Amino acid sequence: MSETNEIQPETVEETKEETKEETKEETKEETKEETKEETKEETKEETKEEKNEEIQEEVKEVIKEKPKDPRTNIITSEEMALHNDTKSGVWISIHGKVYDITKFLEEHPGGEEVLIEQAGKDSTESFEDVGHSTDARELMRDYLIGSLPVDEAKILKEKNPANWVQYADKNESGSWMSWLLPMGLAFIASIVYRSYSS
Predict the structure, then answer these.
(1) How do residues 85-122 score in pLDDT, each as one tens digit?
(2) Is the pLDDT of residue 69 over 70?
(3) How far apart are CA 187 and CA 61, in angstroms?
């Protein structure tokens, strides 16, 4: 019996050690599994967050890229005045329309200094005093970003209007009369001359 008693403590100790080892292994495996699951969840969350951030950035870019409709976009003179240099952009107004001419500075035939001098202000008088061509007036459409409120707009009669053809049509009846009357008088004079000379 003593042998069994002696064996038992060893067995108990071995069992304890085995149990400890099994517990350690189970704990390690559980910890590994939990860590894997946590890592997966964290990765999923990070991926979701990254995707959300990417989507938000794309939306911001689309919003920046999509310009407002220049026909309905109202820009105050105070807002226009903030854009008076090449850093903030060069905005001017002509006949109540606001133009962002920052990209046109280097292309301007009169030099960029002239435009920068007018930046952030109404440039209607200066524009009309120079007498810009029809092509220049049509080119302005590319840079239109909005309009001033009606009470702030300065509108002058155009000295060289882009729609000069319409003005010519109004005066067309006068141009007919300018050559029809002399031709009629010449015809009548020739008939009178022939009748008296025969």
Answers:
(1) 888 889 999 988 999 999 998 889 888 898 989 999 99
(2) yes
(3) 73
